[in-house]
Amino acid sequence: MPVISFANAKGGAGKTTAALLLATEIADRGKRVTIFDADPQKWISTWADLPGRPRNISVVSQITPASLAEQIMDAAEDSDYVIVDLEGTENLIVANALSVSDLVVVPIQGSSMDARGGAKILTLIKKLEKVVKHDIRHCVALTRTNAAVTTRALKAVQEFLAVKGIDVLMTPIVERAAYRDLFEFGGGLRAQDPRQVTNLDKAQENAALFAAEILERVQVLPTRRWYHVFKRAG
User: Where are the beta strands (DSSP E) in the chain?
Assistant: First the structure.
């Protein structure tokens, strides 16, 4: 089943929020999801310990560079989707995860610092493609955007990505209180109370559109060549 990794070399890019939104949206559709929490902050592992975690979401937090590829392969056999939340540095865990990903999502806020952090991951992907001898499909997700205003910095990032010919999701992840509340109270967006969370309906719509774009991309992916390479090596 598809392996989707979230990576940005700069922390605070909205990477973990994007990964959790995708996981909970997929789970709401009745699919089994395994999340690998490779971020040292372990926000998703903390979320998993809160009430309301869907039963069809499993979270793996014990990860080593040597075991990660095999762990992902095993999870891909048992789950409908595997999601990997990577740490914000370039290291062996990040490289191994990207190498066995069917899709890499690079979350970027509307700032030059985030764009540079995202560019580091995109450069790493290009290097890894030469090593594994196959394309690693990737796209950019704009995060923490303002629903009402497109800032000058965000426009500059969009222009930078367009010039580079990078695949950018049409649906940006808008800054919403509902997304922050996931990490405070657990569960998914559907479990939140609209009387207590502002613009919950808009947050739910935004997350659904974001997830739909990701799922559309992985549904048309070719048979993963990396799986057979790693399987033979094992």
Answer: 3-6, 33-37, 57-60, 81-85, 103-108, 138-145, 173-174
Query: pLDDT digits over 204-218, tens only?
Result: 999 999 999 999 999
Q: Residue 15 pLDDT more than 50? A: yes
β-strand partners of 217: none
- Considering the domain delimited by 3-233, tell me its CATH architecture: 3-Layer(aba) Sandwich (3.40)
Q: How many CB atoms lie within 10 A of CB 50?
A: 13
Q: Give the β-pairing of 3-6 and 138-145.
A: unpaired
User: CA 89 to CA 97: how far, in whole Å?
Assistant: 13
How far is the C-alpha of 214 from the C-alpha of 200, rounded, in Å?
21
What does the pLDDT look like over 95-131, one tens digit per residue?
Answer: 888 889 999 998 888 666 666 667 778 888 888 888 8
Is residue 16 a contact partner of residue 43, using CB atoms and an 8 Å limit?
A: yes
As a residue count, the chain comes to: 234
CA 199 – CA 177 distance, rounded (Å):
8
The predicted structure's pLDDT at residue 226: 47
> What is the b/e burial string over 175-191, where b = at least 16 CB atoms within 10 angstroms of the residue's CB?
bbebbebbeebbbbbee
What pTM was estimated for this model as a whole? 0.88
